[in-house]
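We emphasize that the prediction below concerns an isolated chain of 1369 residues; any contacts that depend on oligomerization or on bound cofactors are therefore not represented. The input was used exactly as deposited, without trimming of termini.
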Amino acid sequence: MFQILIFLILTFSLPNINSKCIWYEGIRDSYNEVYLHGEPKPLPLNDTFLLNEMCPHIATQNGASPNLCCDGKQLTEMRKFKYMLDNLIGRCPSCYYNFLRILCEMACSPDQDQFLWPLETTNIVRPNNDGNVMTDETIRSEWALQDYEDPEEEEDEEKKDKSVGKLPSKPIETVNVISKLRYFLSEKQAQDFIDSCWSVRINFQYAIDILCGSLNRACDVKKLFQYIGLKNTQSPIKIDFVFINDTYFDHELQRTFQPSSATMFACDQPVILPHVSRQKCTCMDCNAMCPKVANITKNKVIITSKSSFIERIKSKFSELHRITIAAIVLYFLFVIVFTITNVLMCVWNVKTNRKRNSPSSLRNRKSVESDDGTKNFSDHHHIPLPTQDEDESEASFDGDDSNGLLDRLGVKIDDNLHTMFTAIGRFCAYNPFYTIVPVVAILFVLCYGSRYYTVTTDPVDLWVAPNSRARQEKAYFDEKFGPFYRIAHLILVPKNKDNLVLRYKTPLEAEEKHTFGPVFERNFLLDALRLQLSIENLNATTKSGEIISLNKTCFKPLEPDNNHCAIFSLFQYHQNNLTFLLNESLYSSQYLECMQSPITQETKSFERTCMAQFGGPVDPYMVLGAFPTHDNVPDYTKAQALVITITINNRRQGEELENALLWEKHFLEYMKNYNSKWFDVSYRAERSIEDEIERESNSDIKTVLISYMIMFLYIAIALGRIRNVRHILVDMKVSLGIAGVILVALSVWASVGIFSYMRIPTTLIIFEVIPFLVLAVGVDNIFILTQTIQRDRRLPDEDVECQIARIVGRVGPAMLLTSVSESIAFFLGALTPMPAVRLFSLYAGMSVLIDFLLQITVFVSLITLDQKRTLNKRFDVFCCFKSSKSRHPHPTETELNEENLTETDGFLFRIFKRYYAPFIMSDYVRPFVIFIFFTWLASSIALIPYVKIGLEQNIAMPKDSYMNDYFASLKQYFAVGPPVYFIIKPGINYGHSNASNMICSSAGCSSQSIANQLGIASLYPAETRLAQIGTTWLDDYYDWLRHRGSTPCCRLHDETNEFCSTKSSPHAKCHVCTDGTTREDLTENEFKEFLPFFLKDNPNLKCAKGGHAAHGSSVKLFESNRSVETSLIMGYHSLLINSNDFIDAMQQAYSLTDNITKALKKEGYDIEVFPYSIFYVFYEQYLTIWHDSFMNLAISATAIFIVTFILLGLDIISAFIITLTITMITCDMLGMMYLWNIELNAVSLVNLVMSVGISLEFCAHICRDFVLSIQRSKLKRAEHALADMGSSVFSGITLTKIGGIVVLGFSHSQLFHIFYFRMFICIVSFGAAHGLIFLPVLLSYIGPRPNRTRRSRAESIQLQKQMSLNATA
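Result of the prediction step, given as a token string:
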């Protein structure tokens, strides 16, 4: 290629002198005969069409031939290379015709002597017209493009020469020709030429680098023409270019020269010449044609020392999120209101205390106390509160003469619930057999369904909704183009990281030195290639004894024409030939040429193809890593790492998938034990992530089991109330605790069975999270029920069954409140489209509901039996044995009254009652609590916008996984991101030129075409995350059609009109498919007829544009009429490191294609363009994760508000307070996620939804106890509720969970540690803090007023109970 370009310049750069010629008539071997001071000669009329084609800037008129310094031979020779130039720079007409103009000025200008002068001449022999005629095949010497050599034809010619005798030749004639000349070129003209070609691309490279023989944009005007003129060892003619601006006197030649005044076309100008008219270059090849992208980042205000305070505040606020600003503003308002309110309250309290302490007030109080003495009774459950608060509340209470409608309805709801649960409790207590046996039978039927359960492990099915955009687009891509192949990756990093200097051979056979990166060191390359070859030869054996090799499972893009696996590595540039590396000292030359042009069919250095063994090109950015860039062009020679990618066929199921998995397993085992002296290697297979997650799960089973065992042990021990050592074996509740835990496990098992019957799959997250949730809900209810019984005193003549029924009637509504609220909230949460969250919500809702039903039936029967066991002084667990400490074998009635009617206060209850509750409810602590918690809330809300979304892959891996090394190497050494495909859906006629112009990217295509818009986006990879866009199949198809030379790409057999490949026999009679060389000349029928030939044509030495390798799977044709159904354009994302990069890349791609679709519709083409990359389907969830999270949490909170409003007796204030507290806990959780570096994803969303349910447990029981309290003031009621229920909540949830959660902190799994230990510990601690500190304080301020009817009834019942107990005593 280089030789031909140089020949073009050399052959046609020898003009005349003194406004006359310096040569005329081409002789041979690029030499032209000296014709010094010769007059220009008229061009024969039959050669005028050649002149118009090759030199369109020279005007000709009909019937008149211009006088020139070239003849038809030179024009014919020039024409042979026109198509090569067209393939190289023809995409940009300005560059292409500027180059032709320079050639024509040098070759044919009648004013040659003005800017050219011969420096050296030599004598050569003129070939005769018989024996040594330079034919079309033999005229090409070594400077000819190797792409167009035909070895088969040359072999046939040699045979023909041997068989046919030589004809006698004419006498030999010696001719004087020019061998070196000096060319005076306008400096402006030369600069304009290189500027017009500067951005022209060819196969992800710049054409100017190829013309200049330079690397990585190191070309300039002097290097370009020096490389063409003097470093060309292939052409005998040398050109000494001299750049001048005006008339120049050469002292050596003693002549004055005037450079040509020809004007160059800028790349953003149309080419308008006498014999040709072409459009502007497109943005892909001309930066000046690209629209200016507005700076999307706002200009930051520069703050200096002179800036005012207001400007500084504005600058700081402009960097904050709107939610953060709103949180800060609202917090300041809260501080102001809080401060003013507390000051006013202090003033009011001072005045009130003065009045209360006056002598008259004290006398009145004493008289009131003496009159009401009969009303005062001692109640163990109620804590004496200050008389001041009692009086304040009594005034407001007595002011209500009657209850409202909602209050009356609320009392009826309470009564009905109390009656219903009392009846349930009585039945279950009196009939344990008829309760337990039917329930166990039903449980057996439900649990039996688990035999049909299926576990969803496919990440697509787990995290992506079936109707999501990415899921549908993936299905479309898989259907039309086949599923994306599986890959095995190796990243090889040299241990010696020093650069080295190697000699290489230029395309013109000149040896140069260049500094290369460490990956080009010979020993490193040899060891790396040996590793690759070893992997290719790996075999795995199935259970049946079948040998599975890589060749049986790998992806073969050119199958059946080529059965080699698609392995992308640097060694494909010499077809993985180990001998080449061993024997060739200048091996780097092959790499240099192939890195510059990966589709080169034969390099000049070693006459080897750059195409891989599997028949396709290998782009250098796929096989090299960590190389620098210059002017946005990578310097591959400085690469620091080598990347090998092995592609494997991807089948979703069946034997092929099993074989692929087996081979990958064998590959991973081989790499685990591999070690090299020369490099470190990081590796992975497609199955690696799933394997490591499974290994991680198995390794953490022990940790999870220990966690649950600690919780079970605590439950079994903490349920008992040990009176003393003498009764320890009797007072224990181990069997009851174990029974409660078993009921929790059965509820989860039953929910799995129910949904298995319904063929709804389960997920591993259900088994990891739901037991934790159900334990929190179920154990809390167990503790409350058990401890209420322990604190209760049996009434006289009341048996155990009636006592249990009475307590179930009191506690059952609270259990119903929490369980039903959570179940409905979870069931509504199943409306989310995310499958993992939906399945969790379904299973969680059902588990909580079943657990509640088991607790109010089976557990009530069990606790009745356990209570009777205790009264009979039988040992726990070993109930056949009785305590020998009993004073009488048959206890008397007096003993029963003393031991069995006395309630038992636990240690925690006494702490809460005597110390904690009074402290929290003190006048000085309550305001401080409100201030602290609202400050916490404001801070959390301010941090919410900064919570990261996504899930880093390395987090899901074990800490000792080889994948962690791979991810680290991926971030450090990978140079390009994953491939991205832009799919064009049906709806456009590709055969119509106007329609195709909306797709292609070469000159003449619309500036709004798909390829051009993608090309523009790729110029801004930092913003668009699009690094590379490949050549479209449409552009390559047109190049394939118009390719000429000795063997055109598209030919048809003369007789059959079947496709005649360039590999066909040289004797085959074939003709060119079409005479047209432009898109406009191609008819729609021709487009459809020849397209299948292009898609099946393998690239080879004669035709590098064959589309089978690059585009064989890029086009889907209709089977009926061969027209295009759908097609794609391939590109590459920029390097994507973390989740934010992947999410942003997907967002940018969606935005880009949406804009392209809108642009096409404006042009009248109703088609859709969408992007697809392998990771989109996994990251799409994050595009809507905030919306999904808000909707899930909002639905759950709304459901809780409605259910609590109903079941708390239509108490809207209590429902609001509970919902507010849960909302605060959720906001605080989100704020903590930012501080503790926990990302928002499906796993953390499940935990957030679960936190809503657990938070309700911390709030609902205390709030309901507050509502039902008979105390008159809010402060007394809040203190009573905290003392009465606080200890049960603390021991039932907080202490139960803390022990098990702490164990999770020792897990080796990063996933468990971050998303379970960190989040679970925060859920429990935040819930306990809000439920046991903030909620009672808030209730003491804004809690609902007591219901008059409920209070009067409760006082009456309490009085009767007290009188009965006093009579018994």
